[in-house]
Amino acid sequence: MTTRSDEPTTADLDARRAARRYPDRPIVAVLAAVTRGDRALIVQRAQQPNAGRWGFPGGVLELGETVFEGAMRELLEETGILAEPAGILNVHDAITRDETGRVQFHYLLVAVRGVWKAGEGVPADDAAACAWINRADILAGAYPSFPTLLPLFDKAMAEAGT
User: Fold this and answer.
1) Global pTM?
2) Using CA atoms, how far apart are residues 83 and 37, in angstroms rounded to an integer?
3) Which helix (H) or strand (E) is 43 found in, with range?
4) Hey, which of 21, 24, 123, 133 would disulfide with 127, CB 3.0 to 4.6 Å?
5) What per-residue confidence (pLDDT) applies to 134?
6) 59 in Cβ contact with 32 (< 8 Å)
7) pLDDT at residue 11, as a whole number
8) Which secondary-structure segment (H or E) carries 19?
9) What angle do CA 133, 40, 89 make, to 5 degrees?
10) Residue 1: its pLDDT value, please?
11) Which residues are within 8 A (CB) of 37 and not within 5 positions of it... i.e. 6 or more apart?
12) 3-class SS of residue 89
């Protein structure tokens, strides 16, 4: 397999993921809550932490990126969806502790509302699957998700005027 010199290799990505375990400080990450009518786009996580669970597309903010740039980049990389950032919805901590109580992961998540522009959603990068869902889908438990999904979905819809 040939890769461009500016693209990270699988070994580079594995090393980055390993470095995020047991961090010495919170890691800033971004989420893209993109709405389209009464639906929002979610992805199923392909990587740990929380592989198999559904949530808004996102990932770690890169050095030199704004929060809006990072959220829209992660959205495009994971789903092929183009959207325009339309404000910050909220900021919250995602902390996972191991069996001894030691912090295994600590992400500071900045959720950005996105206005859909193009694309239907094709899983790529860190996403195993993607779906456009409505509130009833979340309430029915159709997608095993994070407890923050419904409140963030509701806030995104309210700010979108839906």
Assistant:
1) 0.84
2) 14
3) strand 39-45
4) 123
5) 96
6) no
7) 65
8) helix 10-19
9) 140
10) 42
11) 162
12) strand
What distance in Å separates the CA atoms of residue 84 and residue 142, rounded to the nearest whole number?
28
- Domains of the chain in start order, with CATH, are 23-160 (3.90.79.10)
Token pair 């461009």: residue: 4
For residues 82, 158, 29, 59, the Cα torsion angle rounded to the nearest 10 degrees is -40
What is the C-alpha to C-alpha distance for residues 116 and 97, in angstroms, rounded to an integer? Answer: 35
Hey, which residues does 85 pair with through a beta bridge? 114
Q: Provide the CA 140 distance to its chain's centre, in angstroms.
A: 22
Smallest Cα–Cα separation from 26: which of 125, 140, 105?
105
Residues in the chain with pLDDT < 70?
Answer: 1-18, 49
Q: Map residue 65 onto helix, strand or coil.
A: coil
Q: What angle do CA 126, 11, 27 make, to 5 degrees?
A: 55
CA nearest to 87, candidates 67, 63, 64:
67
Identity of the residue numbered 35: T
* Residue 64 burial (C-beta neighbours within 10 Å; 0-12, 13-18, 19+): exposed
